[in-house]
């Protein structure tokens, strides 16, 4: 079964096209990365999948259900960590988890959920209004995995996380995937997607640029890795490396020479040629091609997050709120209970 299928999905806000003709299939059990700079249309896509906004054109199914006509069935089975989610500031972390457990009929223990995301029990007693950004993000992740969802949708999940938190989230994603959950993971932090995703889609300016495995993207982009050589010989003549098959570019800058290559086997001949030509090699390191390089190769941009950010218009058209529970129930229920504490 396909977990997500969109056909010609399009969203326009007046003159502004947020998403154009997106046709995409995410297979059940995949960890799928959805990449693009700020303003590329990632959140819009997720909002369309969850029926928080309505498409201008096209359609989508999620877990086999129509995203619009069968919204409740979709939201029951999907765990969501939305971008820019709201928490109920006066309620404790525990109360949030209880609420998620109730609305998703989850059977997990709140303490086990806290442990998974690395939140202290003491902190879970405090109102979330006192939480740091990373703590909020961890709580939101704990709520997203409640009830063993069939599909986990994570919109920019690593925002505010420290490196340990990023590792924790990565482990959670792997555990969920090993358990058969499909993971749809949007990010503009390109490097973080490579570690966990089976396939990635690159979205740019509302349009799908490409879909492939990381390996496939590397091969098709022709983006290779770089050998960086430290040398006291400044002003090196790059032509001394001419004729070594697989070397794609050489730049000398001060006491460093950067040699780009498509074939990893060129490293030894390059070092040999440099030494042979009288160049002192003090040190060298290998810089693997990053996803940023791939992004630049496919979109002709550097993935600058501010690049695609026109001012949003006053028009909203939002028909739901990306609440942390995926719109399962009204937040007032939690606010009411907040008065009595956890
Ligand atoms: N309610 C709205 N009204 C007008 N334009 C909007 C609205 N929502 C989104 N847009 C525009 O649609 C485009 C895509 O926005 P979207 O939030 O989907 O991007 P994104 O890839 O999720 O970005 P980010 O990485 O910043 O979350 C942007 O140009 C944005 O300004």
From TrEMBL:
ABC transporter domain sequence ranges: 4-230
Region (Disordered): 298-342
UniProt KW keywords: ATP-binding, Nucleotide-binding, Transport
Tree of life domain: Archaea
Coiled-coil ranges per UniProt: none
Transport among keywords: yes
Biased composition (Basic and acidic residues): 304-318, 333-342
GO MF, any single term: ATP binding
Family to which the UniProt record says this protein belongs: Belongs to the ABC transporter superfamily.
Name used for this protein in its record: ABC transporter
């Amino acid at each position: 079964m396909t977990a997500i299928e969109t056909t010609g999905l399009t969203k326009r806000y007046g003159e502004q096209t947020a998403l154009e003709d997106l046709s995409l299939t995410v297979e059940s059990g995949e960890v799928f990365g959805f990449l693009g700079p700020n303003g590329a249309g990632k959140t819009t896509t997720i909002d369309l999948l969850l029926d928080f906004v309505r498409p201008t054109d096209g359609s989508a199914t999620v877990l086999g259900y129509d995203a619009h006509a069968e919204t409740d069935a979709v939201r029951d089975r999907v765990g969501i960590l939305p971008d820019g989610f709201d928490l109920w500031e006066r309620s404790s972390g525990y109360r949030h988890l209880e609420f998620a457990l109730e609305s998703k009929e989850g059977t997990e223990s709140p303490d086990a959920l806290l442990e998974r995301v690395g939140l202290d029990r003491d902190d879970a007693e405090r109102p979330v209004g006192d939480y740091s950004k990373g703590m909020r993000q961890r709580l939101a992740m704990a709520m997203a995995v409640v009830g063993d969802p069939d599909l986990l949708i994570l919109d920019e999940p690593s925002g505010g996380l420290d490196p340990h938190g990023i590792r924790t989230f990565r482990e959670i994603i792997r555990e969920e995937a090993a358990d058969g959950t499909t993971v749809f993971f949007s990010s503009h932090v390109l490097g973080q997607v490579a570690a966990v995703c089976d396939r990635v889609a690159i979205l740019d300016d509302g349009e799908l640029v490409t879909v492939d495995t990381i390996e496939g993207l590397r091969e098709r982009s022709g983006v290779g890795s770089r050998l960086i050589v430290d040398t006291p010989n400044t002003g090196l003549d790059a032509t001394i490396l001419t004729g070594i098959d697989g070397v794609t570019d050489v730049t000398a800058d001060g006491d460093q020479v950067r040699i780009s290559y498509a074939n990893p086997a060129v490293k030894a001949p390059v070092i040999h040629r440099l030494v042979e030509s009288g160049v002192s090699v003090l040190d060298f390191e290998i810089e693997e091609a990053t996803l940023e390089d791939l992004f630049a190769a496919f979109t002709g941009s550097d993935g600058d997050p501010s690049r695609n950010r026109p001012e949003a218009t006053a028009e909203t058209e939002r028909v739901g709120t990306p609440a942390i529970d995926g719109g399962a129930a009204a937040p007032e229920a939690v606010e009411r209970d907040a008065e009595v504490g956890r």
